[in-house]
Design goal:
Helices cover 40% and strands 15% of the residues. By secondary structure, the chain is α+β, with helices and mostly antiparallel strands.
Length: 490
């Protein structure tokens, strides 16, 4: 800039060179560069050995649509007489490819969603539950950014329609379009690039008043919202070494985690809109269609009535269901080698149980469905119900008295009522808590003789609570044995 400023002042290269302290030829060169419209600070590129071959490089890049490799181009140029190194070829190919991509770059237009128009959904690999794979159904309401994530065991057509039904009922209506990928449950074929819809998914869409649309293959931009929902859902729900999440003990625990995740994500402000999705959903619900009262038949299957014992019958075989569905209708459908049972829950229609198919005479009963019967098929613990004043007074001593009564009755103790009355009398003198503790120790040790309770009370008064309880065992005795008589007379 000092050279050019000096030249503009003197209008003489010789005088400008004297003012700037440079050679006269330097002043003339920079002035010529400026007058030609070029940047004086950009050095001129010297002629290169590969310049005569640039037309061929451009031809190869154009014919391959920017996919040809530099090593392939170098081999062809060497055959044409190029004597330079592969480094020169790589640089030239990179420059030509950059120019080609600049002229063929895909043009994007920001997608401005309308309320009540689009619902995008996709599948993602979920965590393993009991060593079994699960799937995450991820849906995204485009305008409000409201997300719904539902766990499932598979991606079958019935499961897909069931998840769509549960999603629509959670958002409170149906949009105009359902946009998804091209699985076989949605697109069964392609003719001249035109997707052929599965007739059952078309019927399900008509049932809910939605039109099913699919994205272009290998084009995640057309459903980027659902793709992003799948990504962040898997990052927050699938246990990895990064998030250190523990494994899920049951499918119900995974369903609860998905519901809590949706509640947390939908309640915080979205980066794009600056508002929480749950708040924008209240506005978008005004533009959604009204849902039909019953789900589509594909999502459900055949109806069955849950009996009082929490079981349904399918193929003359009883299958158990979780508590809370007694007397209600559920829907059953066969998925491979399993029976899927769907019912109405607090979050809509969802799968409540799944069993392996069985044959008559071999019912499928899951103990986890009966938390109020922890013993399963084992002997039941007797229910203690006091009927006389004496029994009430004894059981009022506490849990130790109840345990003593159960153990003593199972052992066949004689004069049990008299021992109960004596315990009540001792409780009135020594205190109910102290006697209750002694009765509990007696039940654990199996000591139900006449003076055992008094002996335990004396020991507690003298030595305090024992560190260990000695159980009565008839296999060992403190009495002297008769083994020494075996050698008598030998």
């Amino acid at each position: 800039m000092e050279i050019l400023q000096a030249f503009d002042l003197t209008r003489c290269p010789h005088s400008a060179a004297a003012l700037a302290g440079v050679d006269e030829k330097t002043v003339a060169r920079f002035v010529a560069i400026r007058d030609s419209g070029r940047d004086p600070f950009t050095p001129a590129r010297r002629p290169r050995a590969i310049d005569p071959f640039l037309d061929k490089i451009e031809e190869l890049v154009e014919a391959s649509k920017g996919r040809v490799r530099a090593d392939v181009v170098h081999a062809r140029l060497v055959a044409m007489g190029f004597t330079g190194t592969d480094r020169s070829t790589r640089r030239a190919v990179a420059e030509v490819k950059a120019d080609w991509n600049a002229g063929h770059r895909r043009k994007y237009r920001p997608w401005v969603a309308e309320p009540g128009m689009w619902l995008q959904h996709d599948w993602g690999e979920g965590p393993r539950v009991g060593g079994r794979r699960t799937q995450l159904f991820c849906a995204w309401l485009s305008w409000s950014r409201f997300r719904v994530v539902l766990p499932a065991w598979d991606q079958t057509l019935g499961t897909l329609v069931g998840c769509v039904d549960a999603t629509l009922r959670r958002i409170g209506g149906a949009p105009t379009y359902l946009l998804t990928d091209n699985p076989k449950t949605v697109t069964i074929d392609r003719v001249a690039g035109v997707p052929v819809r599965h007739p059952d998914i078309v019927a399900a869409g008509r049932h809910y008043g939605c039109k099913v649309e699919t994205c272009e293959p290998f084009d995640p931009e057309s459903k980027g919202g659902a793709e992003h929902t799948v990504k962040i859902a898997k990052a927050d729900l699938v246990p990895t070494t990064a998030n250190l999440l523990p494994a899920y003990a049951s499918f119900a625990e995974l369903a609860d985690a998905c519901f809590e995740w949706c509640e947390r994500v939908n309640a915080r402000p979205h980066r794009e809109t600056g508002a929480a999705p749950v708040e924008r959903l209240r506005i978008e619900r005004q533009h959604l269609h009204v849902l039909p009262g019953a789900p589509h038949a594909i999502a459900l299957g055949e109806e069955r009535l849950v009996d009082d014992d929490q079981t349904i019958r399918w193929g003359s075989v009883r299958y158990s269901t979780p508590d809370g569905h007694q007397g209600q209708k559920v829907w059953c459908r066969v998925v491979g080698e399993e029976l899927a049972i769907t019912g109405s829950t607090a979050v809509g229609i969802s799968e409540i149980a799944r069993h392996e198919l069985s044959t008559p005479g071999h019912p499928r009963i899951v103990d986890a469905h009966y938390p109020h019967h922890p013993g399963g098929n084992l002997p039941r613990v007797p229910k203690v119900r006091a009927r006389t004043p004496e029994e009430v007074a004894f059981l009022d001593l506490g849990e130790g008295a109840r345990r003593w009564l159960i153990e003593a009755a199972a052992t066949g103790v004689a004069r049990i009522r008299a021992k109960m009355a004596r315990a009540v009398a001792l409780g009135a003198v020594l205190g109910g808590d102290r006697v209750d503790e002694a009765l509990g120790l007696a039940a654990i040790a199996g000591r139900f003789a006449e003076d055992d309770l008094v002996s335990i009370l004396d020991h507690l008064g003298a030595a305090g609570p024992p560190d260990d309880v000695v159980h009565v065992d008839e296999a060992h005795s403190a009495q002297p044995g008769t083994g020494s008589w075996d050698r008598f007379g030998a």
